[in-house]
């Protein structure tokens, strides 16, 4: 069965989605083809992926949704003529740690699979991943091992392992002590420190309250 992995991040090979893809491929004995949506013509790519039994879309959550380049590509996809041996699965990662934040996109992926007449492998969701590129190895070792197993099991069974999906999804929502910690960390400004640093590095900190789409009268 042929598989193609599509990287749905606008950052392409320089992003965190690529790190997820690499770990998934590490688990496969025969790694499959990977293409970056942002580097391709959406209609040509949609035509190309038709020939594959399985499409795996690995992407980040941007503004509670999917990146524009991915959305534009999806609009070019056509339903498979028959669902026999045709599947689609999603690997979704982002900065928000609670997986409840990803549920709307997850639901959409479920309906999209039906629309495309492809069997739904499921959506792997992993929050708290915005810093993954800069994390020391010991902090990401466990996640990397799990992603490798996901790839290994996928190659063997053509399914996404349900136990892995469940484990990566945690926490769904903060509660109890974790919630108290989060509230404290938010109050002292630690949650925003990473965003503010990035805004400052790009000379955009002073514009962080700009509303460029608001009509000026
Ligand atoms: C413009 C922008 C918007 C983002 N919006 C969200 C969001 O709504 N939810 C979330 O969990 N993470 C959000 N993030 C964090 C990214 O999902 C996270 O950094 C991810 O790992 C980026 O993956 P990539 O490097 O493959 O693009 C956002 C990041 C950027 C730059």
From TrEMBL:
Pfam families: FMN_red. Gene3D superfamilies: 3.40.50.360. Residues 32-94 form the NADPH-dependent FMN reductase-like domain. SUPFAM superfamilies: Flavoproteins. InterPro entries: Flavoprotein-like_sf, FMN_Rdtase-like_dom. This is NADPH-dependent FMN reductase-like domain-containing protein.
């Amino acid at each position: 069965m042929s598989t193609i992995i599509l990287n749905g991040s606008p950052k392409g090979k320089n992003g965190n989605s690529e790190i997820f893809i690499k770990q998934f491929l590490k688990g496969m004995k025969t790694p499959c083809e990977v293409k970056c949506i942002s580097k391709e013509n959406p209609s040509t790519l949609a035509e190309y992926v038709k020939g594959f039994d399985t499409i795996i879309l690995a992407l980040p959550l941007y503004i509670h949704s999917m990146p524009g380049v991915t959305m534009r590509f999806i609009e070019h996809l056509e339903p498979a003529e028959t669902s026999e041996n045709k599947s689609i699965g999603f690997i979704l990662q982002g900065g928000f740690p609670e997986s409840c934040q990803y549920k709307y996109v997850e639901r959409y992926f479920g309906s999209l699979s039906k629309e495309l007449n492809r069997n739904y492998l499921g959506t792997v969701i992993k929050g708290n991943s915005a810093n993954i590129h800069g994390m020391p190895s010991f902090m990401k070792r466990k996640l990397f091992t799990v992603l490798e197993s996901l790839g290994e099991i996928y190659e063997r069974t053509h399914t996404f392992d349900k136990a892995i999906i469940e484990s990566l999804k945690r926490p769904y929502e903060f509660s109890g002590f974790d919630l108290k910690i989060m509230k404290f960390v938010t109050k002292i400004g630690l949650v925003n420190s990473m965003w503010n640093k990035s805004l400052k590095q790009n000379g955009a900190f002073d514009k962080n309250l700009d509303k460029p789409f608001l009509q000026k009268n």
